[in-house]
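Pair request: fold both.
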Amino acid sequence: MATTSTRNAPAKKKSARKYSPAASKEVKTEIEAMKQGKLKSGKSGKKVTDPKQAIAIGLSKARKEGKKVPPNPNES
């Protein structure tokens, strides 16, 4: 009879953060601006209503400021 003991199981590997806390704060700021109706799109200046677009704007600003954020997969 086999026992299901986790005593000898390998320890879980901790993964590094993909985004820095500063980048998360930048995204949070942009989300709040969107909810207040103050967030505008880049060139056209239209009001942003999509949360995904607000997140993208926050990550873009974080990248420009040199915070720890993975590169944009859509840019080569």
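--- second member of the pair ---
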Amino acid sequence: MRFDRAFLQTFTVQVIQSAASVATGVLIARGLGPSDQGRYALLVASVGVGALVAALGQFQGNVLSAAERSTSGRTLLLRSALQCLGVVLVLLVIDKAGLLRPAVRGVGDLAYVFIAVLCVEALAQMVRGINLGQHDVTAFNVGTFLQRAVYLGLVIVLWRTARVALLPVAIAWLAAVLASVLVAGLLAWRRSEAGSVTWHALRYGWGTGIIRGLRALTSVGLGIVLVRCDVYMLGPMLGMATVGQVSVATSTAEWLWYVPSILNNLLFAASAADPSTRGVNQIARVTRSLVALLIVASTVLMFVGKSLVHLLYGAAYAEAGTLFILLLPGAAALALHMVVDAYFAAKGFPPITIWGPALALAGKVSLNLVLVPRFGAIGAVCATSLVYIFLLMIKVGALSHEATIPLRELLRPTWRDLAVGLGSLKEWLLRRA
């Protein structure tokens, strides 16, 4: 298949990136403590939502545009840079009017760093979309790897100099994203055909691209708010220290999402370029393989997860270990959902990609309002697991019905899947021997 080697390359890079992300998160959490870790989690959540809105769905829009016309890379790069410049100006005006800081209460003293990180993260999304649209998976992997490696390196420097605080950490984050954008953008520029970029070329299709990305913006935005819902709700209800505990548990549970999230992007690009039955079969095979991987990983983490959280983050995060165990079923379900959802993303984000997460978000908010006052953070993470499982059931059922694939072909691993995977790995290793 077209992306087999890309999957293997990405898996290898992702394992390294995951280790870097875990190490970065541990050092930041240990250095900040639960309360400031809660503020950092709020900053991360706000940047995630804000960058998505600023990008206006143009990660997916650039994937589709670059796939349709490979020569458009330079035009898309300049268009993305202009869009982010416009966002900077809008946010500065909003801040000048005194409206920004109340909107990000808890991190309002970092307003200018917040604006900078948000806009560069939005630009990074758009540039990576161009990489994927050009089927340059190596450039995509280099960009994401560089960001995590630089961020880890700078946090280590802060740790060794005893300067782990919110402002230095946020500046380190900004520097890491900038490095990623510069490298990924340069690779996309070099891969595109040379030629003059006119103002007409920049304007032509820009509005269409934004309209095309609105469904993606709505769908992915709902998903991000769903995942970060606790950060926004638990601060006023239980305090920022509890947000810090939940964020550590959530970050650890997200280990299960690293590979599925990158596979989601690759499968989206592959299925958009090849909407035939082969693309559906590929998603089914990856989903079955992921089920086997998640069963093993979740079982191991169920027994050792609590001790692992305490070992990594220290005694200050004792509560996070218990919360992590309760999050595991939901985290595994959302990991599978990410791969299944690639099918619907390639179909142009049909209504199910909007009403599915909207229902899940409404359920999450409702359950939090009922369970958190009575059970605290434990009620919140139990609600999270239930909602993620519900969302997976919706998407798996819809894929099975629409693509006429029996549920067993989506969820039951086979020995043949293992053999194919090992064969691809063997071939990849021999080529590099």
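Observation on the second member. The chain has one domain: 4-432.
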